Amino acid sequence: MITYDRLFIGSSWVEPSDPALLDIASPHDRSVIGCAAQAQPADVDRAVAAARASFDAGVWRATPPAERIAVLRRFNALREGNREEAAHLISLETGSAQWFTRAGQSGLTRQANAYLKAAEEFGWEETLLPSDPASPVRSVVRREAVGVVAAVIPWNSPFSAATSKIIPALLAGNSVVLKVSPENSLSMGFLAELLEQVGLPEGVLSVLPADRETSEHLVSHPQVDKVAFTGSTRAGRRIAAIAGKQLKRVSLELGGKSAAVILADADIEKAVAGLQFGSLLNNGQSCIAQTRILAPRSRYEEVVTALKELVESLQVGDPNAPDTFIGPMIRPEQQARVREYIHLGIEEGARLVTGGPQIPEGLEEGNYVTPTVFADVDNSMRIAQEEIFGPVLVVIAYDDEDDAVRIANDSEYGLSGGVWSCDEAHAVNVARRIRTGTITVNGASVAFDGPFGGFKASGIGREFGAVGLGSYTEYKTITL
Q: At residue 33, what are phi and psi to the nearest 5 degrees?
């Protein structure tokens, strides 16, 4: 049993306003693996007051950027040194397979290094010469911290979502209240322990596990200057409405229903092998998962057969077992949701290639679903339009490349996607036509120096690198 009976508020561990502890259940067998205090509105008020006081006093924002960079560099090294413990905790509480949580730790190092590099090269203050030589006016342009940042993250990839927000926010000099999901109370408690060791001033950072109602209290708090949110599009719309009413700054990384476009000249074997990771990462519980597979009619059955063989070859089971590729859904409600979508796909008339709504044999005590592939899917079907957030793939046929681009763009989302071809330049040209914030060619990995975020209902704003760092700053112009 892992227990966190206090809350990390203002860079210190304090007694919660409600002493009751929430049991944290294993997605694998629903046994209790730990318990943790949960923040209430009174705890949010305390955390925001500490953040406001620290920001207004300048104890962190007035620290030179080089010193802030040094503190966050220490944190990155400390997290890297504890990567196995972090990966283990995430697998325990989310059901993410070990291959994913361990690989994610390397990704976190690259993500942090990109932010640190951006901060070192950032134009914190620049003098602009007048565009008109006859004008005596000069401008000093400063990039200053926004203020108190409420960072609200989901449960599916907690360390990545947390660090993608707190690192740039802190590098920019903000004070931060990080609101995490109750399901992540253990791994995020461990994150708070690491952050405690790096030397942040009093009041600058709080980490609060809390439910949705308490989260809304934080987002609505009048002393919060910016909300940085990752989660569902529905929740993002609610947060945007609150932020708009109060004129808060807001960045939203929301849902996706990304398309993988397999061009007619693609190596099908390599493409499907890449989609094992691009489409089914984190048990399918990923906003960037490429769950719409677009295949040319001339090679359609070849793609369907290859996907069937791939999915049936993957080990489903205990996320802590070394050979497991797909683990359970995080909670019973998510398991039920995914199984309902599988039933819906059958009702909509799609061809069930493999899988189905049945729970995998021998795994009935956990939150497991059977990985599923549907073929003969029309893009207007709900299973092709709605984010299922589980290991369910749909294969859609297209006539030519114009048709493939049309289908890929026929979605309210625009977060991610991929193009597969033996001709890289050709694939890049197709990628340019797809309306999505991030798109890979032939399974390339994420580039953390470049901006990440979504078009359309997939969000507002960008994370990662210099662009992500800049989203936590305000411009100030001083004319001379």
A: -110, -10
Examine the pLDDT at 132 and tell me if it is beyond 90: no
The residues annotated with a catalytic role in the active site are 253, 287
Q: CA–CA separation, 418 vs 197, rounded Å?
A: 40
Phi, psi of 259 (to 5 degrees): -105, 140
pLDDT score at 135: 82
pLDDT band at 133 (very low <50, low <70, confident <90, very high): confident
Give dist(CA 253, CA 256) in Å, integer.
10
Give the side-chain half-sphere CA count within 13 A for 77: 8
State pLDDT tens for residues 49-106.
999 999 999 999 999 999 999 999 999 999 999 999 999 999 999 999 999 999 999 9
In a domain, 394, yes or no: yes
Report how far residue 262's alpha carbon sits from residue 267's, in angstroms, rounded to the nearest whole number.
9
Percent of residues, the chain, with pLDDT higher than 90: 97
Name the β-bridge partners of 227: 150, 250
Structural domain count of the chain: 2
Contact 18, 37 (CB under 8 A): yes
**What whole-number distance in Å separates Cα of residue 5 and Cα of residue 22?**
10
Range of the domain at 239: 2-254+458-479
Residues 290, 199 share a domain:
no
| Residue 146 to residues 100, 168, 226, 470, Cα–Cα distance (Å) | 34, 12, 7, 10
Q: Which residues contact 275 (CB under 8 A, 6 or more apart)?
A: 260, 290, 293, 307, 310, 393, 418, 443
Taking Cα atoms as reference points, which of 239, 246, 184 lies closest to residue 215? 239
Task: Report helix, strand or coil for 192.
Answer: helix
**Whether 129 and 16 share a structural domain:** yes
Question: In terms of domains, do 204 and 325 share one?
Answer: no
Rounded to whole angstroms, the Cα distance separating 386 from 352 reads 18
pLDDT tens by residue, 226-243: 999 999 999 999 999 999
